Amino acid sequence: MNKRLLFNTLCVIAITIAGVGTSKAFSSSGYATSSALSKGKWVKIAIPEDGMYQITFDELTRMGFENPQKVGIFGTGGHPLSEILNGSNIDDLKQVPSKIFGNKLCFYACGPVQYTMETPTTTPHFTRKINSCSTMGYYFIGELDSAPMQPQSVTYGITGTKVRDSSLDYWHHEEELLSASQSGKEFLGEALTGGTITIPYSLPQVCGDSAIVLNPRAAVKSKNVSFLALKFNSNDIELTTQESKIFSATSEYVFYNTAQPVVTIRENNGNTIPETGEVTMTINASQPYVWSRLDYCMITYYHINNLRGATGNQMRMGFNKVSSADIIAIDGATATTQLWNIASGSKELHLKPQRRLQRLYPSLHHRLHAVHRLRPRHGADVYRRI
Fold first, then answer.
1. Strands 338-341 and 367-371
2. Which of 17, 60, 264, 304 is 20 to 30 A from 86 (CA-CA)?
């Protein structure tokens, strides 16, 4: 899906904030001596979601940059910052690794939703954390004195013995519609009309004979206990009492309680997991309740590593138990296919695949992006997600 990228020139506003009382400051050694934005020309761009992005040289020229070969991407994107104030947060903008392909500057960027793999050794599944202060991730494009910083490039020989031709991915449905407490940073989604809601899902290139992990979250405002029931493609999903139970509100300051089960679903009676279908959530209660709402619904699943069927010429691949014996097989990969390790936001590792199989070293843990044939995009005013 093409995403429009917004850009505008940078406007700097200086604000003086006066405070009283005493405070404790971190060591000055953790702060930059000057801002990267203190000189030169800068253009601010908005990123709607995680992924590989490209800017053509023509677009950079229209932004006012004289030499597109010497333009860099700076910033950390839209993932939420840690709420622990220990001095570890980045003080200034840092350059993002990027690479020039033909007349395009390509880079990996982060939107406002951060996805993390939980319990990778037992029940691997993705969870999300939303930036409560912004609906976009932002980066700055700036002029450089030399070529932009490139990702570390590593080529491995094909010596592994375990071929992995599938990888973990996720489907995520969520709408931010209601702040139940009219405060705080958590928003809920659609109302469960009549206590029930059905959400269609899509799992492109799913390995139908592999298990999936369903992770919904529903909220209820009630003075009585209620229970969440699930159906996957009209089949009842068995939940324990602990998984399905939604506690009653104990005071007027408890605006709602939730159930958030994590359940594994396997093929049933020879029926494989279909690429498309629906998840139904129902609230069962013996007494009337005030309201019920969906927060989000996620599915973690294995998909085939096939670039031919990937959307937008890129494919997300997650791995949990990785060893030096693993070989990642990518169907449809060519000599121009690029692999980026995105497990750590600013430490992308660019891998050069050799033929069809690519060995994955153990330290390249959890998440890779494969990008196939960086095609030019139509449209002159913006650049789009690859």
1. antiparallel
2. 17
**Taking the CB of residue 121, how many other CB atoms lie within 10 A of it?**
7
Residue 238 to residue 285: CA distance in whole angstroms: 17
- At 21, the pLDDT band (50, 70, 90 cuts) reads very low
DSSP string, 25-71: ---GGGS-SS-GGGSS-EEEEEE-SSEEEEEEHHHHHHTT-S-GGGE
Residue ranges of E strands in 34-184: 42-47, 51-56, 71-74, 95-96, 98-101, 104-109, 113-118, 125-130, 137-143, 152-154, 162-164, 166-174
Q: Which residues contact 283 (CB under 8 A, 6 or more apart)?
A: 192, 195, 196, 218, 220, 226, 227, 228, 229, 246, 289, 292
pLDDT per residue as tens digits for the range 325-352 = 778 888 888 777 888 888 754 344 444 4
Residues in the chain: 386
Cα–Cα distance for residue pair 191/291, rounded to 1 Å:
8
**Facing residues of 81 across strands?**
none
Phi, psi of 2 (to 5 degrees): -75, 135
**Which residue type does 251 have?**
S
> Whole-structure pTM over 0.70, yes or no?
yes
Count other C-beta atoms under 10 Å from residue 43's C-beta. Answer: 19
Q: Which tens digits make up the pLDDT trace of 191-204?
A: 999 999 999 999 99
Retrieve residue 209's tokens: 């004979």
